[in-house]
Design goal:
The chain is α/β, with parallel strands linked by helices. Among the domains are: about 230 residues, TIM Barrel; about 80 residues, Elongation Factor Tu (Ef-tu), domain 3 (Beta Barrel), CATH 2.40.30; about 90 residues, no CATH class. Helices cover about 25% and strands about 30% of the residues. The strands form five sheets. It has an eight-stranded parallel barrel with strand order 1-2-3-4-5-6-7-11, surrounded by six helices. It starts with a strand and ends with a strand.
């Protein structure tokens, strides 16, 4: 039986961060090229991507180019050119949102349907698979049961986000940034209006909630659900964060590497999708890097507390409470705190006062349970204390990296006057090295065998060797320097052979008809090729994308998140609270009307 490969997919803002992710156990990376990457601030020259692909391929790891914005008519040729350049640079797949690219002459490379294609139903999954996508990147808001239904409807590989920032709207269906600022999320320019502060007001102008980040969600963390996700049909576990720094990527990738390795050890139905294991290095601590608090969102098919609360930024790990507050001789803040944790010099701290105000400082000096700072801040006794920058942990991430080594078994053969070492890597690549020279018979055969084992069973380059068998006509003595050189030569020869990747043959898929369907701006049709594709599949009409012709009033967001539920006033949950509706979100003089689709259990924002 062929084992199902599981993949940890990490973001790479640039080449150095991508290399760090590979070194910490990532099986694949996703990275943007110079344009069309859905994260305007995370573009990379193709020369850097080519270098990263060469590094990743040493471990049999993949590199996927994000070509996942919608494409305007005058950009089609440039986007297709970039696809070919990515293919020639060694990229292993393209992540695509704009279906018009499927009508263009793309290179022979696997295509992944971006989460921006709004994959929430078996029908959408089947349609995208019928277009030729070999992987579908599912919406973040799905439950395990919904994932199983999609798995049963198609044969394409399924990818699921498991960690990182959450958009409040269904991906690919958010137009608020475009409406408010002219910066389109579907073009990689999102201004993140969901992280801003809003007033919630009723139809009479009464303020229900004042200046809170009412659309800001906690960060996703599905580490505890990796076995269930695999069982539901997910093959790729995706970490969000193409704008995140190196320390974040190191910590979170290694965290998911350890969680997934535990599953691989306990369930032999699965295997890794790349080569090598990690040895030594830091212990991951996901609470120590950027997060807005964690949620499992809708994975269990039920709602919880999803809002990030009083602030839309990371406040860090909870430490304790502030006890006494004073000032030193220079008038700088000094405080004592109560906690089992110890604050270190250089730590970044965040306070939330009993009234909900937020302040941040850097600990200049920590002595016992007292902290001194040169920063100005108003802190009150009883404030909750968090650490959002752990100085000592950041130093450990930098200086105590694990080693990622690929296993290889060595057969040691000595017969007919020749000595040969044959190494077979964990992905079945085979190389041989002959030891030249005259060697005398060992005076102590047992110690000679121990010497061979001791020198061969070491690491060289990115390989770690295990002596699996010795075939010998007589026991000769080999100097350690000779054995070490042979081991290094085995590693060098293995490096010259590309890692072996098995490809899965997929069955032919029946074409899906869209006969009779009318598509509005939410189909994100920005060019003639995407319009032709929908027409060829039977759509009766198709409006242009929001970015081309925005309706006067439009559904700017559709969300699984619901403000009423978050406030405990959901009528479906039995609340008797009633508002004068419609309700509105207000920000900088702009008002956005809210509607509540209780049948689908969704909130809609109009503007």
């Amino acid at each position: 039986m062929q084992l199902r490969e599981l993949e940890i997919l990490a973001p790479a803002k640039n080449r150095d961060i991508g290399i760090a992710a590979i070194d910490c156990g990532a099986d694949a990376l996703y990275i943007a090229g110079p344009s069309f990457g859905a994260r305007e601030a995370a573009g990379n020259p193709l020369s850097e991507i080519e270098a990263l692909a060469k590094y990743a391929h040493r471990y049999g790891a993949g590199v996927y180019l994000t070509l996942n914005t919608i494409i305007f008519e005058n950009e089609i040729d440039r986007a297709v050119k970039l696809a070919w350049e990515a293919y020639e640079c060694g990229c292993d797949a393209l992540i695509i949102q704009d279906l018009g690219l499927l009508e263009a002459k793309l290179p022979p490379i696997p295509l992944f349907a971006s989460t921006q294609t709004n994959i929430r139903t078996p029908q959408q999954a089947k349609f995208l698979e019928s277009l030729g996508f070999s992987r579908l990147i599912l919406a973040r808001e799905l439950s395990l049961e919904q994932i199983r239904e999609i798995r049963e409807s198609c044969t394409a590989d399924l990818e699921s986000f498991v960690h990182g920032a959450l958009c409040v709207s269904y991906s690919g269906q958010c137009y608020m940034s475009s409406r408010v600022t002219g910066r389109s999320g579907n073009r990689g320019e999102c201004a993140q209006p969901c992280r801003g502060d809003y007033n919630l007001i009723d139809n009479n102008g009464k303020v229900i909630v004042k200046e809170k980040p009412l659309l800001s969600l906690k960060d996703l963390n599905l580490a505890d659900y990796i076995p269930q996700l695999a069982g539901a049909g997910i093959s790729s576990f995706k970490i969000e964060g193409r704008l995140k720094g190196k320390s974040y990527i190191k910590n979170i990738v290694r965290y998911y590497r350890s969680v997934t390795d535990n599953l691989l050890e306990s369930d032999k139905e699965y295997s890794r999708s790349s080569l090598g294991k990690l040895y030594g290095g830091f212990t991951p601590r996901p609470q120590n890097t950027f997060n807005r608090g964690y949620t499992n969102l809708f994975i269990e098919g039920s709602r919880g507390s999803w809002s990030s609360g009083e602030v839309a930024k990371s406040i860090g790990e909870y430490i304790g409470t502030v006890e006494q507050v004073g000032k030193d001789k220079r008038g700088n803040l000094v405080f004592t705190y109560k906690s089992d944790e110890r604050i270190g010099n250089g730590d970044g701290l965040c306070f939330i006062t009993p009234s909900g105000e937020v302040a941040g400082i850097r600990a200049s000096l920590s002595e016992g349970m007292s902290v001194y700072t040169n920063d100005k801040a108003q802190v009150k006794p009883g404030s909750l204390l968090y650490r959002n920058y752990n100085h000592s942990f950041e130093k450990e991430l930098e200086s105590n990296m694990p080693k990622r080594l690929i296993g290889a078994d060595v057969t040691f053969i000595q017969k007919e006057g020749e000595t040969t070492l044959i190494a077979v890597s964990e992905d079945s690549r085979e190389v041989a090295v002959k030891i030249e020279g005259e060697f005398g018979e060992a005076q102590n055969p047992e110690r000679a065998l121990e010497g061979i084992k001791r020198q061969i069973e070491k690491s060289s380059g990115i390989y770690t060797f295990r002596l699996s068998e010795i075939i010998s006509e007589q026991q000769l003595f080999y100097p350690a320097s000779v054995l070490n050189e042979a081991r290094r030569e085995l590693a060098a020869k293995l490096e010259t052979i590309p890692a072996i990747k098995e490809t899965r043959v997929r069955p032919e898929v029946e074409q899906i008809s869209l006969h009779g369907q009318t598509l509005d701006y939410r189909a994100n049709i920005a060019n003639s090729l995407s319009r032709e594709l929908y027409s060829r599949h039977g759509a009766e009409s198709a409006e242009p994308a929001f970015e081309i012709s925005a309706p006067k009033e439009a559904e700017l967001m559709r969300c699984k998140y619901c403000i009423k539920f978050e406030m405990g006033t959901c009528p479906s949950e039995g609340s008797k609270v009633r508002y004068s509706e419609p309700l509105f979100l207000e920000n900088s003089g702009r008002k956005f009307r809210l509607a509540f689709d209780c049948k689908k259990c969704e909130m809609v924002i109009f503007g």
